[in-house]
Amino acid sequence: MNNKAYPGADDITRVKLKNGITVLCRSNFNSPSVVLRGNLPAGSLFDSEEKLGLADFTASMLMRGTEKNDFQSIYDGLESVGASFNFSANTFTSGFGGRALTEDLSLLMEMLSEGLRRPTFPTEHLERLRAQHLTGLAMRDQDTRDMAELIFDEMLYHDHPYRHTGDGTTETIGAITRDDLVAFHQKHYGPRDMVIALVGAIEADDAVKQVEEILGDWQNPEQPPKPTVDDMPPLEERTRRHHPIAGKSQTDLMMGFLGPKRLDDDYMAASLGNSILGRFGLMGRIGDSVREKSGLAYYAYSSLSAGRGPGAWYVSAGVNPANVEKAIDLIIKELENFIKEGVSEEELEDNKSNYIGSLPLSLESNGGVSGALLNIERYDLDLDYYRQYPDLIHAVTREDILAVAQKYIEIERLAIATAGA
Amino acid sequence: MTQKFTKTTLANGLTLLLKEIHSAPLISSWIWYRVGSRNEVPGKTGISHWVEHMQFKGTPKFPANVLDKAISREGGVWNAFTYLDFTTYYETMPADKIDLALQLESDRMQNSIFDPEEVASERTVVISEREGNENSPMFKLSEATQAAAFRIHPYHHKVIGDMADLKSMTRDDLYEHYKAYYAPNNAVMAIAGDFDTEKMLKRIEKLFGGIPAAPAPRQLSRPETEASGEMSLTVEGTGDTTYVQVCYHFPAATDPDFFPLSVLDSLLAGASSLNMFGGGISNKTSRLYKALVESELTVGMSGGAQATIDPYLYSIVMVIHPEKTPAEALAALDVEIARVQDEKVSTEEVARAVKQAKALFAYGSESITNQGFWMGYTEMFADYAWFENYLDNLAAVTPEDVQRVAKKYFKKKARVVGTYLPINEENINE
To answer: ipTM for the complex?
Structure first.
């Protein structure tokens, strides 16, 4: 495919407003709708130990009432025209996103501005949402997959901020007050380092103008600098924990180690290596061993979650409680083989071809393109990144993959989490 | 953007739908077979889904491992779904690579091996899939309500099948099912994307035209009789959360009442999306959300129906607020159902449902995979015209229609009320 079809410097508009907001836009008139997405640095890294879940709670309250509209009129406006919009918190940032028919874009713009700048945090909704969050946590306690992930993170990141999920706990969600929400919002929500991407049936000039109109005069002198996280050492020894949940017919297993950061030089080699290990075809080598050859699991795959801080590189599987040890052994065998033998030329070529060939599909929709634009901004990539992507992929060698495997995978330092009966 | 649409049938009975879309260099190819849990009898429940799994286990020409690697190598995405009325397989590929998917589908329509060793290995994979489902309280509850709602009709059981049958079915059972239902005259092929219709037609004719038609597969005819009273059931399990599922019998997709009911669904529980790829919208201004979640009787609610060949269900799921009881939530639900039966809804509310559907269609059209999905999916229970006329049919709905169908289908005496009651250790000690 002609690389020119991907977003690039000549069709992405990137404008930085005076108050620090970056606006990105790419037009697409194939469908009469627009996607609006973005984020600002107000994520859960700012949560204190006593108020874990505060960033998430704050974000989820922004559409519960603003100076201009109450909850029902906010959602009546959106849902009446089939539009959607929401705020949510991640680790580094709080994000927002929505879509509408182009004729209704002003609704999204207004929602964005009112939610960010003039939320009222109505007490009635605070308690309603608290009950919803607490029920969500009770459901999570019963979910073997969620709980395996939770204790995996606790083990891998023992004293690092990443040991927490952004959701909080029953105690911390119970302890959050309206004053906490108001204070978090006042301090952390501001225009500096905020990013907005607009993709769809809109001209770029118009998009920038609309953002300027609603957010160009926004200021928050209190806003702290963007948070950062430290690196951390791998586990000192292999660590294993089981979280019992009664009455479950399947146990979830999660095992892994620290991986690279997104901007590390060896990220692309790790990503391709991970694809060979547990993604390509039907869940890569892990899927082939645990599912195809042994019939032990419906799902068994590996993931690499590389971001700004030390990412996790892990294998997940759902197995019958009687087969847990068998599955762990098979996975360890695959990891050992991966460190020892690396990958074959054929595997590498197949996976490179997959990465490059699947790009058109991932960039097909407005949602996909907006994700790509935010990715470029988040990691300060070149606007032509997606056009250069095939070259970046081609540059990875078998030796690179063997090197990352040996650098990151230490069988004797694995974190192994299981949750279930 | 011009979108050329063609529908035709090959001499062997294969229905073919083609839609040229040139917005991205992609093609999505779908093959649909008219077989699902609707065609299954006790002892063989889950057989359609298991056959779907076996379709990834290879033919002499495309052995198991070769096949998925070949698709992935080209940057393609592929998957399959088995549901009540259908089993479907799709590949979305870079446009210049689609021929691989077409060859594969033509081959596995007739040449899958069903190697006994692969069958044995896949048995435990499917059992593992079911065990994973069983971990979820809502799976256990919906399995029980579905079984209560259908005593006669095969919609009675879950698509994945009963554990007893997953343990006892044989390789020959699976192969026989495959041979009975996988034939061009029982299939629909739908292709959307960046191709030339004439060339594509020729290629399909070449790859599929020579596959002989099979005798028309035997159809079960076990219509459900009218329910003679409300049924209530309880499922007990671990956890702290109570769920209630209320199911009303709902007409087939081809019933003219389907459209006023879709409007009613929008009003009651929020607009349901027909998109498999492309998502939906929130439901926070729906009548039931206000009556249940905003009044803090539940912490969540959802509702919706499926477009099916035979009458199926309208299902409402309520996650009960920790300080409230299922009875309180059910009483509030009944008030809202009575309201749509007793009072006519406004024309504005009908217009709103139409606008919501229009937006959902626009979002769904961004994805070529979703466009391929729509064409084949609608052929399973109606035809593509059902989809093309959907918005017009919704727009023609009147407030009187909505009231009439509310009275006709949302009857207490024809519903099933299922409750998932959490039993934690404290309760057990009592």
So the answer is: 0.91
